[in-house]
Amino acid sequence: MPRQPDPSLEHRILDAASRLWARGGEKALTMRAVAKASGTTTPTVYERYRDRDDILRALRLRTRNELFAALSHTHSLRQAVLEHLEFALGHSHAYEVLFDGVGKPPSLHEPWPSFNLIRERVAKRLGGAPRKYTRIMLSIWSLMHGTAMLIIRGRFEGVLRTQTVNACLDAFDAILDAEQKKRLHHSGPKWPSSLILGEEKQSYVGNGSEGRGKKSYAKKVKR
Question: Smallest Cα–Cα separation from 63: which of 109, 114, 106?
Fold first, then answer.
């Protein structure tokens, strides 16, 4: 009889890849190691994924879709922030992979549905177009991610973990409240029009990966 496909195999492969990456980074994530950790063979892994980058891309897209699905069921901005944290803490390995190199291609040019969902809700609450609030969204994103990684890497448990999550929620409330009352101070240079996030192929951060940003920075240093 023909061999029946295993519907859970791709799920196991991606789970194994996320664990390996979280533990040892790029060096630990080989096709052979993924095969062993997922209980299959190396040729079987190659049948589904071309190489390590292909596995990582599939893992990022799966994690983004799962995070977006979790946030979509929330009914307020505060709930969305809490759900983001709970998802990160409940899927720590995949979450770490998702944010590794997130500001550079190819991750930079992939869909960021959860980023956009929260930014759209911020715009709905404060008024105006979502892109107007990209800088605020970056503040919120930094707050959520920093909290999640502090708990994950710091191995926070019990009361400390609970207090850290609530401290993040309180800071989030303060940011939105200050922005709503026009009391939020924006330090540093004005947000450049060329810095675009969450818009897939149109996203651009000017960090040198496209060439232009690195050259501009070099000129400033010489001055």
Answer: 114
